[in-house]
From TrEMBL:
<keyword id="KW-0408">Iron</keyword>
<keyword id="KW-0963">Cytoplasm</keyword>
<dbReference type="InterPro" id="IPR033659">
    <property type="entry name" value="Ferrochelatase_N"/>
</dbReference>
<keyword id="KW-0479">Metal-binding</keyword>
<protein>
    <recommendedName>
        <fullName>Ferrochelatase</fullName>
        <ecNumber>4.98.1.1</ecNumber>
    </recommendedName>
</protein>
<comment type="pathway">
    <text>Porphyrin-containing compound metabolism; protoheme biosynthesis; protoheme from protoporphyrin-IX: step 1/1.</text>
</comment>
<feature type="binding site">
    <location>
        <position position="277"/>
    </location>
    <ligand>
        <name>Fe(2+)</name>
    </ligand>
</feature>
<dbReference type="Pfam" id="PF00762">
    <property type="entry name" value="Ferrochelatase"/>
</dbReference>
<comment type="function">
    <text>Catalyzes the ferrous insertion into protoporphyrin IX.</text>
</comment>
<keyword id="KW-0627">Porphyrin biosynthesis</keyword>
<dbReference type="InterPro" id="IPR001015">
    <property type="entry name" value="Ferrochelatase"/>
</dbReference>
<keyword id="KW-0456">Lyase</keyword>
<dbReference type="InterPro" id="IPR019772">
    <property type="entry name" value="Ferrochelatase_AS"/>
</dbReference>
<keyword id="KW-0350">Heme biosynthesis</keyword>
<feature type="binding site">
    <location>
        <position position="197"/>
    </location>
    <ligand>
        <name>Fe(2+)</name>
    </ligand>
</feature>
<comment type="similarity">
    <text>Belongs to the ferrochelatase family.</text>
</comment>
<dbReference type="InterPro" id="IPR033644">
    <property type="entry name" value="Ferrochelatase_C"/>
</dbReference>
Amino acid sequence: MAERRIAVVLFNLGGPDSQSAVRPFLFNLFFDPSIIRLPTPLRWIVAQVIARRRAPIAHEIYEKMGGRSPILPNTQEQAAALTRALNDLGHVKTFICMRYWQPMTDEVVKAVRDYAPDEVVLLPLYPQFSTTTTASSYRVWQEAAKRHRLTAPQKLICCYPTEPGFITALARATQAGLEEAARIAPQAKPLVVFSAHGLPKKVVDDGDPYVAQVTASVRAVASWLDLRESDWKTAFQSRVGPLEWVGPSTDDVIVEAAENDRAIVVVPVAFVSEHSETLVELDIEYRHLADARQAPAYIRVPTVGAQPDFIVGLSRLVRQALGKPESVQDGMGQHFCADWSRCVCKALG
Ligand SMILES: C=CC1=C(C)c2cc3[nH]c(cc4nc(cc5[nH]c(cc1n2)c(C)c5CCC(=O)O)C(CCC(=O)O)=C4C)c(C)c3C=C
Ligand SMILES: [Fe+2]
Ligand SMILES: [Fe+2]
């Protein structure tokens, strides 16, 4: 019998690969109706205006990382590790599909169609579901699949905020961060600051489950580490634009912790690889805030990246979606949740 051909598609955000890509990347982001909820002609104008205004700040951010985002090479490393973890399943090929910069959806859909898979598994590199990330990637994927006649059965893994491999990888890295803080500042009480990308408050009020799922991830890590409530806080970073965003903001929490002589251990809980939000915002800007207030320690825990526990977790999700023993297919047909009892991702339907 011929080997089953499986395509695994990793959804991620993407990032500029040169300084000249910064403005078109920002335009793509702000032209997304999941990010700016306006009708098309107006959204096009608004996206042009915001991209032009934001470009100088974004240029500075990417300059600090050598003029480009490392999100693609980091995602490629995860893709290679995941392919190895799935090689017993048959002929498995992993594709990367970025939302706002290359490789983008049309190109990837055509590559997947040309691979002629028997099954396609769509795996967002966003453990927590948001209308602004997973749902946005999924919508443009479906549109492109129709356009390019990709007809193989497709399954979306919607979210996995408490997937054990993800939680174990994050908890182990946090444990190492706490040990480092104790070595640098043995006298100081540590505070673990779980930091997630924020969202406009209106998006959450309209039913986006992202913040609830971030909270589920945080509680799972805190419980793995046996932390007390006073040992940790959840905070939200990367605010852009004039709207009110969910809080508390990571910078405020860091300033307060530093002023209270806490040793700060920052854990990125919604990013699974390194990019501007970790390497610049957390490592440079927020470290500067902590140093200026003489925090006894400021440790930034690395993202889970290609850590074996995380990759095993991702491979488990793919196996579940392919209908292997522990399949958790829900009532929505093609949609799979790692933990449906906690999942409120009906926003997808
Ligand atoms: C959990 C992941 C993310 C959510 C939710 C999210 C929502 C969101 N983002 C913006 C605006 C920007 N995001 C930018 C960069 C960026 N965002 C994410 C992830 C989420 N965004 C990542 C991984 C990155 C890094 C990309 C890279 O560097 O490779 C940027 C660009 C950088 C900058 O100018 O600060 C913007 C702008 C909004 C408005 C939003 C929800 C409405
Ligand atoms: Fe973002
Ligand atoms: Fe779900």
